[in-house]
UniProtKB/TrEMBL annotation:
UniProt source species: Mycolicibacterium sarraceniae
InterPro entries in the cross-refs: EgtC, EgtC-like, EgtC_Actinobacteria, Gamma-glu_amide_hydrolase, GATase_2_dom, Ntn_hydrolases_N
Domain Glutamine amidotransferase type-2 as annotated: residue spans: 2-230
Catalysed reaction equations from the record: gamma-L-glutamyl-hercynylcysteine S-oxide + H2O = S-(hercyn-2-yl)-L-cysteine S-oxide + L-glutamate
Matches recorded under Pfam families: GATase_4 (PF13230)
Keywords: Glutamine amidotransferase, Hydrolase
Annotated coiled-coil segments of the chain: none
Gene Ontology BP, a term: ergothioneine biosynthetic process
Name used for this protein in its record: Gamma-glutamyl-hercynylcysteine sulfoxide hydrolase
Length: 230
């Protein structure tokens, strides 16, 4: 499983979210603390952020810890809305930059932490890669993020062993699901962080229960159980 993170709030640097925290995504790429599946996340990484309404992305098939160019530039990149991930590729999936989250339809940035049988997903020409996560992202984009809960329920029914942890944002809204892995929220004075696992030991981190949809807009965090879940 991968580890991912989303930010919605005041402009902050990408480095402050991914690289600086003591257990941030950079450290999670080789020493995650709560990872249930896989030992490390060395098969690539990606970050997407909104810049005056435009979704910008930087993705790689190499380990985050070795990217000295990104480490140099990340402190200069600032955004109100960010989706970032480090990847542990599922066996049999391609390792290439286009298989690293976040995926995008131009309006949304989306990361998938988990695994799904590609046989239950419709083939979409819009998928950026043959990796299961890109095919799932294409389906979620097709059906619309407003229908994310229903899409997760449908896919979860079609593949009961799927793990479907999503993190997605469009610049003014950040949404996530828990379906088979951990997620925590940190409400800060300047915004909200959602992350597969806390990036530090601040006491304000709260765990999100399994099979929930989290929706962050205008500083408000709402939690909804995913219906039909057992
Ligand atoms: N199945 C996806 C991939 O291979 C995501 C893997 C994960 O969550 N570790 O990239």
């Amino acid at each position: 499983m991968c580890r991912h993170l989303g930010w919605l709030g005041e402009p902050v640097s990408i480095a402050s979210l991914m690289l600086d925290p003591p257990s941030g995504l950079q450290v999670q790429s080789y020493a995650p603390r709560r990872q249930k599946h896989g030992l490390m996340n060395a098969d690539g990484w990606g970050v997407g952020f909104f810049d005056h309404g435009h979704a910008r992305r930087w993705r790689s098939a190499s380990p985050l810890w070795g990217d000295v160019s990104f480490a140099s530039v990340a402190p200069a990149l600032h955004s109100r809305c960010v989706v970032a991930a480090v990847r542990s590729a599922t066996v049999g999936m391609p390792i290439e930059a286009s298989a690293s989250a976040p995926f995008s339809d131009g309006s949304w940035l989306l990361s998938h932490n988990g695994v799904v049988d590609r046989g239950v997903l419709p083939v979409s020409r819009a998928a950026e890669s043959t990796v299961d996560s890109a095919m799932l992202a294409a389906l979620i984009f097709d059906r619309g993020l407003d229908n994310l809960a229903d899409t997760i329920l449908d896919v979860g029914t079609a593949d009961p062993s799927a793990r479907l942890n999503i993190m997605a944002a469009n610049g003014s809204r950040l949404v996530a699901t828990t379906w088979g892995d951990t997620l925590s929220v940190l409400r800060r004075d300047d915004g909200v962080v959602l992350a597969s696992e806390p990036y530090d030991d601040h006491p304000d981190w709260q765990d999100i229960p399994e099979r929930h949809l989290v929706d962050v807009t205008g500083g408000q965090v709402s939690l909804t159980p995913l219906e039909g879940s057992s």
